[in-house]
Amino acid sequence: MSTHAFEVVTQSGTEIEVAHKLEGHRYRFAIVKNSQGKRGLADAVDVSAKAGAAHMPELFSGSARAYAVSEAHRRHAID
Fold it and tell me: Is 0.85 topped by the overall pTM?
């Protein structure tokens, strides 16, 4: 899946939210610190499915996480 399929909706010190551009599903990932104090994305994701979308949001969850990690690194939100 192309990273161009997603966009960052919001980003703060505690979370990053990305959306699938065509389907409209949103994926919110919390930014947490691990036992070594490094920031990363939590394992859990809060998904907001868009009603009437052609595909279920689970289809894009892996790609959404990969995009969120890439953008969070680029924005220096995670280590």
Answer: yes
